[in-house]
Each structure stands twice: as structure tokens, then as C-alpha cells.
Amino acid sequence: MIATRLTAFLGATFLISCGQAPHNVTEKYFLLVSNTKSPYWEQVSTGLNQAARELGVSASLVGPGVYDPKGEKEEFKRIAATKPAGILVSAGDPKMLTEDIDAAVAAGIPVITIDSDAAASKRLFFVGTNNYEAGQIGGRAAVKALNAKGNVVAFLLAGQANLEERLNGYRSVFAQNPQVKLLDVIDMKGDPVVAFDKTKEMLEKHKPEVDAFICVDAESAKEVAEVLKRANTKKVVIATDALPATLEGIEGGWITATVVQKPFTMGYTGLRLIADLHLNKLPSLNVDFAGSPNSPLPRFVDTGDTLIDKLNVAGYREANKVAH
User: Fold this and answer.
1) Nearest partner of 255 among 244, 269, 270, 271, judged by Cα
2) Could you tell me where the beta strands, DSSP code E, fall in 26-129?
3) What does the alpha-carbon distance between residue 137 and residue 145 come to, in Å, rounded to a whole number?
4) Are residues 157 and 67 in contact, defined by beta-carbon separation less than 8 angstroms?
5) In this structure, are residues 47 and 263 in contact, taking their beta carbons and an 8 Å threshold?
6) Which of 156, 113, 118 is nearest to 138 (CA)?
7) Which of the following CATH numbers is that of domain 131-260: 3.40.50.2300, 3.40.50.1480, 3.20.20.140, 3.20.20.370?
8) For residue 238, which of 261, 254, 262 has the smallest C-alpha distance?
9) pLDDT in tens, 99-147
């Protein structure tokens, strides 16, 4: 997936918002996710809400309160039936949502994906991380910490496209380091406690010895770190995102590093872009924007990522404090 430069597109969006107030609070936008209780979405919502205040529109985070792709699908249908100004959706199960996304777009509702894509659908574009690249960043950090030799176990939510892409990024790096072996990939099925139980079981059995844990979701690393802390055992742990418990784990030496996305940016930029699509309606949304050489829309808005470890975690915390 190739990121498209958005200087002109974003510039137009922000220019519009600086003129006479073209937006109003009757414009309703929804960010639909598969688990609203995940602390990750608090960070996305901060950006979403700031953009909503600046634009003078209504924006809401909606979805099931536990990881539930089927529940997300039903919520998507409910929201689409209200004919909102636009829908941002993080696809828990892309295959399950494709038909509903296509139907909404056909009805003239702008739909963009955020954080987790549904690339086979007719969504207009994706706002988020280059997840394959993020996995490669984590993979290189793992290989370095392991001195290019060791057994690795990964945790993810199977079927969620962004997590699968990250894991593929890890695999590509491990393939170049044959003494680093990915022993197992464990599906947490939406419950981070699975990572706690499985890590504890592996430490107790030592069959085989696990040298590193890869957590391609936001929440499993804190569970792995807690098990290691209780057992007073150090392992290589590569996390994802910058939840407070993850940063504390790095500072305490229980987590080696984390690949940090920019969730605030996803929420902020995503809402501004979809609001511009509502205000400046295209002649039709039923167009192959991704395949068109003269498309007015990008295919992918890369919001960026970075690696945080013990050397730069204090600087990251300070920068985050200043930003808010």
C-alpha cells in the first residue's frame, strides 16, 4: 500500500474551515469500532473531538462495549440507516463489513476506514498506519534485542487486517534472520487476559523455551509484562502503541520497546477529511478512486509511527504532555 501525499487535499480542507462557518452541528459523524472500551480509542477520540469542536460538527464514538465484530456490523447498519454526514470505521472483521460499507457508499454516505482497513470494500480511503512497515520496525527491534537468535511467540486478534499486516511485517524480518523462529501465533479472541494465561503457562512449562513475546495489538503487552514481573523474569517484549501501562513497562524494564502509532492524528485528520467530503460533495461516490489516475482522493493517508524504548520514553512522555 502506497501512501499518497495530501498537502493539497489537507490544505484545501483546512482553508475551507477557516472561512465562513460552512459546517454546523446538525452534521453528524460516527467513528465505529469493534470495542469502545479499549483504552486505545480514548486517544483516537481526543483527536476526533478536537476536530469536531474546531469544525462545529457532531462526532461520536460508537460500537459494542466488548470485542464483537458481529455487533459492530449491526451497529454499522443502524448508523447508516440514519443517513449521517459520514462514517469512519475501524473494521474488526473486514469481510463481515464489506457489504454494508458498499451499501452505505452506494447510498451516498461517505465512508472511510481508520486504523483497521477494509481494503476490498468501496470505502473511499484509509487513514492510519502503514502496518506492514510498523511490523518491520518491531521485527528489527526484536532481532536486535535477541542478538538475532531466539524463539518468539506472537499475540494478535485473528482476522483483524491491521494486526495481520503487522505480523506479516515481523515475519518478513524474521525470514532474513533464520535463527529467530516464530514458534506460535496466539489468537486472543478479543480478550487480553489470554496473553496473561498463555505467557504464564509457557514460563512454567519451558517447552520450548520462549525468548521473546510479540504483541501486535495495544493491550496484550501489559499482560505479558505483568506475568514476567511476578516471575521476576526478563524476556524480550515488543509491544504496540503507547498506553500508560506499556510506557510504565518500558520504564520498569519489563517491556523492551513499543511501536507507537498516532491515534490522535487518526481521529483528528480522519474527521476533517470526511467532513470536507460532505461539504464539497463529489459527483458520485461509486467510482474506483483507488484505480483512477485522476482521482481527487488519496488511497491511503499514512499517519506515521515510531519506536519507543528506554532511551527515548521520557522524551516521548514530555512531548505528549506538551501536545495536550
Assistant:
1) 244
2) 28-32, 58-62, 86-89, 111-114, 126-128
3) 13
4) yes
5) yes
6) 156
7) 3.40.50.2300
8) 254
9) 999 999 999 999 999 999 999 999 999 999 999 999 999 999 999 999 9
